[in-house]
């Protein structure tokens, strides 16, 4: 029996992960595509006059089985993958792309959609009009108006693109897992806090516990430490290790992912992927891939994005240069460093921060026990939106680390299922993200509530200590939880407009807004307590957190501008021919030119950002990385509304919930934001908050 072919008889209809095995996916995708095709064929052959209900709503509700299997498979392929999963991904992605193209280029279907779009819309709700416009654009922007030959070309391009994006991610994961720095001399650990040393010793035990031991090997793992490229291992090492040579080694390993002369090199992948994206845009009548993507963004065009980035750059660059000069002078004074290198950045920044503000991550870490931070983010949500979280142990899990909760509204009514997956492992890609296993939507008169997940890579517990987070990890948790709120509080009719299904440069508003509470005493007092004594975080520490919030803000801002310009550098180029990007040197050159004047450190020839820049080559951020800074403008402006009336003001929170979180993509984001704030966002709100004006 294939679980995907049956109604889930589980708690809240959650996915029965333990009943699903690797052999179920391909048959489920195949059958799901067949069912979806049959539904589309029935829609097209319907002889009734095309209406919103028998065309747009019928199309929206098609493909239920396909949605069930793909939401399970691709989420696990990011959070709990293996070689078999990756092979299946390479097999089914072209099938899914081919099906998507078949629908998008179905002449008969497009004719019906067009008839509804050009017909009388006076009886439609605002949400229905939005869905109709989105449906029509979905066809016109994806080849419905092309001739048959060009349609075939587009299909071939899309098939290649889908496989290349998967390959890119597989290479990055393999490179990350392949590297480990095994240390056996305790002197090599100089500067590292005890908790980091203990975590590295635990990593050694984990790596070798299942390996058969030779006669020469001892079962005693003492005197062995392993550091990896996972953030909870890499970042503390780069921040605290006094061993400059080892920091250099780690930096080069981290920065050379996908850039080495081996089977995981991503340069050819990028070359072909960028060229295919440009070719596709040209085929559809767009000047570049960026022009195509930004046609459905708040920013609208590359020129608007570049103007936005240049405005931030102009104002932040003088601050960034001063910060770099200060950091360089500090390193020279402290250790006689004549030339600051990239592997020195975190180390001397942390030392300077501690000297200026008498605060650092290790001072704060004991106050941020993971379980208490999670409880704190739940309390924050309750104070703002009235929702509560109730842990469940009867929900099926895809990994033992995952925790699950039922979410209820302020009246005790079921609202959502929330999954939390916090720790790094070999089958999980790096970073942090929010996703959904099931979207919110209305099925006739029934409100199907969502199943939402956040996936992170936080510091693991050790034998002697629980998971103690850095302050940056705390803000990451609040960030991803903001995305989760967007999904959990969704209150739409259609899944494709529900929750986070909004313009890409608007989707980061709820997540980045939630980070603001991490800096507020009233919020920190809810959960920031010493893991051993239970003592609340001292007020002086909170004051220092706030005072240090803008430390190196100029350099941080310029780094984000640089990443956004790398993205635009690849994707705003006009298509010329299929050999547009011809040599491996071009990848490095494009990146170097994009960040010219923005990188203050000497170039490291062995490293590059692009070959592991998963946001734009594996995720959905191509021509959209700027959206982080774009949304920061919105979140800085939005948080001022809370500051004006109190950070837990329920009326302000209710307005944000109603007009932003619950509304999803039912209307244009600029309308929704203005409805919440009463005006457009102030462009300088971000720079003002960061102290850059």
Sheet-strand content, in percent, reads 5-15%
Biggest sheet, spatial arrangement of strands: 3-4-5-9-6
The CATH architecture of the domain at 365-547 and 628-689 can be given as Orthogonal Bundle
Question: Considering DSSP H and I runs of 4 or more, what fraction of the residues is helical?
Answer: 40-55%
Overall spatial form: globular
Tell me the structural class.
alpha+beta
**Number of helical elements:** 27
Q: Please, what is the average pLDDT?
A: 95
Radius of gyration: 25 Å
Total E-strand runs:
9
The fold-level CATH name of the domain at 365-547 and 628-689 is Neurolysin, domain 3
| CATH top-level class of the domain at 365-547 and 628-689 | Mainly Alpha
Describe this structure in words.
This protein is α+β, with helices and mostly antiparallel strands. Among the domains are: about 5-145, Glutathione S-transferase Yfyf (Class Pi), Chain A, domain 2 (Up-down Bundle); about 180-210 and about 220-255, no CATH class; about 365-545 and about 630-690, Orthogonal Bundle (Neurolysin, domain 3), CATH 1.10.1370.40. The chain contains 27 helices and nine strands. The protein has helices spanning about 25-45, 50-60, 65-80, 85-105, 105-115, 125-140, 150-180, 195-210, 230-240, 245-255, 265-285, 290-295, 300-335, 345-355, 360-365, 370-385, 470-490, 510-515, 520-525, 540-545, 555-570, 585-595, 615, 625-645, 650-660, 670-675, 685-690; strands at about 180-185, 225, 390, 405-410, 415-420, 435-440, 440-445, 445-450, 450-455. It has a five-stranded mixed sheet. The N and C termini lie far apart (about 65 Å). Mean pLDDT is about 95; it is low at about 210-220.
């Amino acid at each position: 029996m294939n679980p995907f072919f049956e109604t889930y008889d589980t708690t809240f209809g959650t996915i029965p992960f333990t009943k699903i095995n690797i052999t179920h996916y391909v048959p489920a995708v195949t059958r799901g595509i067949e069912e979806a095709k049959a539904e589309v064929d029935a829609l097209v052959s319907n002889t009734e006059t095309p209406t919103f209900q028998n065309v747009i709503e019928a199309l929206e509700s098609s493909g239920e089985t396909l949605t069930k299997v793909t939401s399970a498979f691709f989420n696990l392929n990011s959070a709990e993958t293996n070689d078999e999963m990756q092979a299946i991904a390479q097999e089914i992605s072209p099938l899914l792309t081919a099906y998507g193209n078949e629908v998008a280029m179905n002449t008969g279907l497009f004719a019906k959609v067009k008839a509804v779009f050009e017909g009388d819309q006076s009886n439609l709700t605002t949400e229905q009009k939005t869905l109709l416009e989105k449906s029509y654009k979905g066809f016109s922007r994806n080849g419905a108006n092309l001739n048959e030959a060009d349609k075939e070309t587009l299909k071939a391009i899309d098939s290649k693109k889908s496989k290349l994006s998967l390959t890119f991610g597989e290479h990055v994961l393999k490179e990350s897992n392949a590297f480990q720095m095994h240390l056996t001399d305790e002197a090599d650990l100089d500067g590292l806090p005890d908790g980091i040393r203990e975590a590295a010793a635990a990593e050694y035990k984990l790596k070798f516990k299942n390996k058969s031991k030779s006669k020469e090997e001892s079962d005693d793992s003492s005197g062995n430490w392993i550091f990896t490229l996972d953030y909870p291992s890499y970042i503390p090492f780069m921040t605290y290790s006094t061993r400059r040579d080892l920091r250099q080694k780690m930096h080069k390993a981290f920065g050379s992912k996908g850039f080495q002369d081996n089977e995981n090199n991503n340069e050819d992948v990028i070359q072909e992927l960028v060229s295919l994206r440009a070719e596709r845009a040209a085929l559809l009548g767009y000047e570049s891939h960026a022009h195509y993507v930004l046609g459905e963004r708040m920013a609208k065009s590359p020129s608007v994005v570049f103007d936005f980035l240049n405005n931030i750059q102009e104002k932040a660059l003088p601050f960034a240069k001063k910060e770099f000069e200060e950091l360089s002078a500090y390193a020279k004074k402290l250790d006689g460093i004549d030339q600051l290198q990239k592997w020195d950045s975190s180390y001397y920044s942390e030392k300077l921060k501690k000297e200026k503000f008498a605060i650092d991550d290790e001072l704060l870490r004991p106050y941020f026990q993971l379980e208490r931070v999670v409880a704190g983010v739940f309390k924050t949500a309750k104070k703002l939106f009235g929702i509560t979280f109730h842990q469940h142990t009867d929900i099926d899990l895809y990994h033992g680390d995952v925790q699950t909760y039922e979410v209820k509204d302020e009246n005790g009514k079921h609202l959502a299922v929330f999954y939390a997956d916090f720790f790094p492992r070999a089958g999980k890609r790096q970073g942090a993200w929010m996703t959904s296993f099931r979207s919110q939507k209305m099925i006739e008169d029934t409100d199907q509530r969502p199943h939402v997940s956040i996936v992170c890579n936080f510091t693991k517990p050790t034998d002697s200590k629980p998971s103690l987070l850095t302050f940056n990890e705390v803000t990451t948790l609040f960030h991803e939880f903001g995305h989760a709120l967007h999904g959990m509080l969704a209150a739409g009719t259609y899944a494709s407009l529900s929750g986070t299904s909004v313009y890409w440069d608007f989707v980061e508003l709820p997540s980045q807004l939630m980070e603001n509470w991490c800096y507020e005493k009233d919020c920190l007092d809810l959960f920031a307590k010493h893991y051993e004594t239970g003592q609340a975080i001292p007020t002086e520490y909170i004051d220092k957190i706030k005072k240090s919030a803008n430390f190196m803000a100029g350099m941080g801002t310029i780094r984000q501008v640089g990443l956004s310009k790398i993205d635009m550098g690849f994707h705003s180029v006009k298509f010329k021919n299929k050999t547009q990007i011809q040599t491996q040197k071009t990848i490095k050159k494009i990146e170097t030119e994009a960040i010219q004047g923005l990188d203050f450190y000497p170039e490291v020839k062995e490293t590059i950002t692009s070959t592991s820049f998963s946001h734009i080559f594996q995720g959905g951020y191509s021509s959209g990385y700027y959206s982080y800074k774009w949304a920061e403008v919105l979140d800085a402006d939005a948080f001022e509304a809370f500051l004006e009336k109190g950070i837990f003001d329920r009326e302000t929170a209710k307005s944000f919930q109603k007009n932003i979180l619950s509304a999803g993509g039912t209307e244009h984001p600029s309308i929704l934001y203005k409805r919440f704030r009463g005006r457009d966002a102030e462009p300088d709100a971000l720079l003002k908050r960061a102290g850059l004006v």
